[in-house]
From TrEMBL:
Tree of life domain: Eukaryota
Protein name: Uncharacterized protein
Annotated organism of origin: Diphasiastrum complanatum (Issler's clubmoss)
Length: 348
């Protein structure tokens, strides 16, 4: 039924082969010509998170003073990422829209020994919530080192109307962008560089578009204005296509709103990385996006076809592996503006 399954390995690209590619030209570290140099530690098979982070302690650049913010982290993948970052010794700001739920989870983690997890309410689709969060973060920690944009929504396929399309873009693309814009001035200067990790999806890739010229257009998006113009075109189509079959206009067949929102997030990741590329040493920001694999979470439990029988699901450890790896990569002029799956670079 056309939904992405586990990505075939042959689609995975080597770092070297993308070095002069369309999407990331100039964003790759010049001195990292091969994939090997992008591995942290020795394990990259995504089998288990345990022990896959730097075994060489000289590569460990972070400490309890390192501040990581994870959006939508009281459950699902976000919770897994927050817990793993805390396990690695980083101070984690766990966030949730619902204050009570977030505090409960923080208390539970505290009782399990994670004293380095703090909670603050955050709804990325509400400018006031984001601005309250920024003020608090700045006052409490003077900023952050790592931002993991995990929060997102997916409407089931039976809900297809203009409002659903708008809601999805408001959270997944504009909400994430709002967070990035609010956090950018708060990213701490450090020799290691700050990191922005955008949790995207294999199902945001260009290959799911049904029109070749649209695919080409989307692959060349390189400014905010271009992305915004495309969003307007998409929303116009969502309004006009009364039965919600967005493929009539070249968009994805299934979950077109979710697909497009992640496509925009990917394009924004490329754009942002290019914008931030020439920052001076000490002020570097590495921004990448990734697919965690297909996971059993509230998002995918909504509809049977999201978790089709016979498909091997990723474990939570596997899902957590790539985002945490990207968040904690050694400061080797690290990758930026790329899309990862199981620690490998994928085409957008
Ligand atoms: N599950 C998969 O197979 C899969 C595959 C590929 C990519 N992903 C991506 O992985 C990420 C995590 O998804 P998940 O599977 O863990 O789903 P999930 O369990 O539904 O978690 C989504 C999280 O986002 C939060 N959220 C939604 N709207 C928000 C808003 N406006 N402000 C702040 N937080 C908000 C949710 O909080 P509330 O409960 O308050 O809504 C929840 O904490 C998403 O970016 C998703 O697109 C998942």
């Amino acid at each position: 039924m056309g939904l992405p399954q586990n990505s075939p390995d042959e689609q995975q690209l080597q770092v070297g082969s993308l070095a002069n590619g369309k999407y990331n030209a100039g964003c790759l570290p010049q001195d990292s010509p091969d994939e090997q140099q992008l591995q942290v530690g020795s394990q990259a098979n995504g089998k288990s998170n345990a022990g896959c982070l730097p075994q060489d302690s000289s590569l460990k650049w972070w400490s309890k003073e390192t501040i990581a913010v994870v959006t939508g982290s009281y459950k699902g993948l976000g919770y897994g990422i927050a817990k793993e970052l805390a396990k690695q010794g980083v101070t984690v700001v766990l966030t949730a829209r619902d204050e009570e739920r977030g505090l409960d989870v923080q208390l539970d983690l505290f009782n399990k020994g994670f004293t380095n997890v703090v909670f603050h309410q955050l709804d990325i689709s509400h400018p006031k919530s984001v601005s309250r969060f920024s003020t608090w973060l700045n006052e409490k920690y003077g900023g952050l080192d790592i931002l993991v944009n995990n929060a997102a929504i997916l409407h089931v396929d039976t809900i297809r109307d203009y409002q659903a399309a708008k809601d999805c873009l408001d959270v997944n693309h504009y909400g994430t962008k709002r967070m990035i814009e609010a956090m950018l001035p708060l990213l701490k200067a450090s020799p290691e560089g700050a990191r922005i990790v955008n949790v995207s999806s294999e199902y945001g890739r260009l290959q799911w578009l049904t029109d070749e010229s649209l695919k080409e257009h989307c692959s060349a998006l390189s400014t905010e204005d271009q992305i915004d113009a495309l969003v307007q075109r998409f929303l116009k189509d969502a309004k006009e296509v009364e039965d919600g079959r967005m493929e009539k206009r070249g968009w994805a067949i299934e979950y077109p709103y979710y697909h497009f929102s992640k496509l925009c997030l990917n394009a924004y990741t490329r754009y942002l990385a290019a914008q931030l590329m020439n920052r001076p040493e000490g002020h570097k920001v590495f921004v990448n996006c990734l697919c965690p694999g297909l996971l059993r979470t509230d998002m995918t439990l909504q509809e049977e076809k999201l978790l089709p029988g016979g498909v091997t699901l990723a474990t939570m450890d596997e899902g957590v592996d790539t985002p945490v790896w990207l968040a904690l990569l050694p400061a080797a002029g690290g990758p930026s503006g790329l899309f990862f799956y199981k620690r490998k670079i994928m085409e957008f």
